[in-house]
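Q: I'm writing up a methods section and want to include an example of the input and output format. Could you take the sequence below and give the corresponding predicted structure tokens, formatted cleanly so I can copy it straight into the document?
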Amino acid sequence: MTEALLDDAGDELAASTSDASLRRTEARSAAIEREIAADPSKFRIMTGDRPTGALHIGHYFGSLANRVRLQDAGVETIILIADYQVITDRDGTGPIRERALGMVADYLAIGIDPARSTIYAHSAVPSLNQLLLPFLSLVTDAELRRNPTVKAELEATGDRPMSGLLLTYPVHQAADILFCKANLVPVGKDQLPHLEQTRVVARRFDERYGRANPAEPVFPQAEALLSKAPTVLGLDGTKMSKTKGNVIEIGMDADTTARLIKKAVTDSDRHITYDPANRPEVSNLLMLAALCTDGDPVAIADEIGDGGGGGLKRVVTEAVNSFFAPIRARRAELSADPGYLLSVLREGNARANAIGEATLDEVRQAMGMVY
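A: Here is the clean output for your methods example:
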């Protein structure tokens, strides 16, 4: 692999979030949506979550609802519970089994259908993880350290050494996508460098190791489907994060939700307006109410008028609890039957293993490792 090729790959990763590249990605995402409407069978989507804690309403509006939409549109959907990725930046796994099953309950409660979508766990698919070996031969230490996510983690670690697992995190994500030959990945703009790294790995594999079928590469060039969902901030006005404790979990009861929203940050102006630039905390709560009622945040603000923060929080609480009530009821039923949740996960693991073994067979053929 020449130095020029490495430099080109670094340039591609850096350019993946440039204004021009974003405009092209947005235009392509719009075209993909039209293609899905015409023929959803052309696409296989891969997406997923790390079981580091309970899924929250930011996850729901940011990605989960979109997964259900795409599934219902007829797109084959593969959903990863990324249990191995929990330890990329943590000293232990925590109550990972409980969290993984809770994640399955969340998925099913929101409308993921295990008959149409595959839910599987990282650690249960050896063929996926085996792809890391050839994939790691296609990237360099310097290239990984230039990846925006790895770079940010490296800068944030302080005295803590960077683990090999965290350094190779982008390659793990590439394996997640490529093991099942996904050709579409729903992402936010900040995740585009990871997808570009996946495209680089797929292209380099074809260039270095060749093909099982001379007519086509082993791995497709996965495309991004950019999320249209607005970002929902945490109750303190910062990014919603499980580690910050500023989230409303999907499975929380109505009373807990009400208490949390009552503590949400607003401001001293009693007249409620939707002004994201100057009143981000108030505007975030208005957007949350709008998402839950399929309404307009400006119109909701006008209705509240001079009701102040208290009036705003009452509206938001009612909207959130009303919207999530049926999801929470269904989740409670599912959580009461862990045997069923396990059966869903095990069936998904079996499907994922079949997919992964077929891909790994092609990889062995391309690399001349069939004995």
